[in-house]
Amino acid sequence: MKKVPLLARLAGYRAAHATGLPPQLPVNLTVSVTYSCPSRCATCDIWQKKVDDLSVDEYGRLFPTLRKVPVWVTLSGGDQFVRRDLDEIVRLVCTQIEPSIVNIPMNGVITERIFQLLPKIAHHTVGAQLVLNLSVDEIGKAHDEIRGADRNFEKLLMVGELIHDLKKTYSHVVLGVHTVISKLNVDRIPEIEREARAIFRPDSYIAEVAENRVELKTMHKDITPDPADFRRAVTHLGNTIRSNRSGHPVARLVESLRLEYYDLAARILEEKRQVIDCYAGWASAHLAPDGHVWGCCVRAESMGNVRDHGYDFGSIWRGAQADAFRESVRAHACACPLANASYTNLLMDPRSLVRVTAHMAGLGHGHERAAQGA
Amino acid sequence: MSGSDRERDLEAVRRLVDRVARANGVGTRVEIHEGTVDRPAAADMVVSFDLSAGPGWERRLGALAALARKVLVVVVPNPERVGASRAAGERWETLAIAPVLWELGRVREHEYLAIPRAVAAIARLRGGTASSADLRGATGAIVRRAARLHAFVVDTTPRTPQARRRLRTAEEGGSKKAPDV
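Above: the input entities. Below: the structure tokens describing the complete assembly.
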């Protein structure tokens, strides 16, 4: 099947957003493979949720119905490595969806299984870019305390070294470090970022804000940093990105999107509104472990369950519940700085897109706003 | 391949083996197995040179890895070299051998050997080595096209603390067993 160029797809989403017509299938798909997680993070209670996870066979029926449209697939959790069959799920993603980028955030806790499965995952993803993001919320013991996992940081070091070895054999592997900025670490972001870069030697360093999400069961938690503190943190990160640009094209694209995202996230926290139109439910979607399809994980409102629709993603995507969700988003009934959806939102916004392109070319002067906040 | 080429190839492998042995504290034995495991003795380091790409190569590599207590070095003809054999039984594509090696251990290094002197000099001038991690850009492309051999250094020690603990426990359990009488 010939793939439609990404720019044509993006134009299609804009048209659907403007007219209210049913959109194409999403280009940005997050697949949560389980809620189970051995970590007890201060910023996440997802581990408390117990559901019947989709099996590999069920994914095998579902993925072909996405008709190879998703370009960017994030395999999320819980801790994905709880699943012994994660490598099989990745293989199905790569053979049945054929995305350009597979992104796996990792807490590094179940070390032995990571060592077993990650080489297989690297092999299955040849032909795409495999972005492995290590979750690093602090340095050393302080990280273990925030993540509620004993010796987690020590294990992350081992996993980081494994990924560096994998990169020697598989040139499509990209190592990222990812920090969730919360009230617990917002004042230390410059130090965390500097030390994490020195210790893990990642291709990219990224951060996003801890937020109240239905998916994570954090609606009651006081974890989101004060907007002014967050602005200070991301201003530092933006400046660091500009002075340490990666040579790797995918990492560079991610950095460029991040430069825009940091400013966007800070503005959303400050202004508490959709600063640019949100395309969650059009260009991006989230598949929950038990088969529910969401427009996004912040609201985690089911558009339907694939198990009730013969594993046909499209029939849910074109259904009445999906339309209702989109109508609500289009009416700006919600606003959030969710990084994953924001990526595609930035690509849909012409002014942001121009700035992202300028950042890619090393011409990034689009952050006057961030600099003003310093 | 001429006799002098073969001598140069062996010399390049010996240099790699010496370096890897030093880096991994290999103190006991280094055995070079050429093609088959005809002397199945365990060693800290086992070097596979000229392994045949015919049927069953995965099993033969597995047998070699089982003999390597610390490191398995696998040297194969470089399939990217200009003029490399196209014959199925003589060709070692990285994407074919890598997943098998990663099953056997942890592939720590991935190097191109037996590089013509002029190319090696250019690579050094450009600040690179023959490690795949350094082989980006035009210099890397030249090295990959010119090297006669491709080597993988596989760490065969238990990969995680859990695996090391299991091995220790198994060894202790074995030593506590009553001697056979």
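Note for the figure: The interface with chain A takes residues 94-95, 98-99, 102-103, 106-110, 131-133, 152, 159-163 of chain B (CB under 8 Å).
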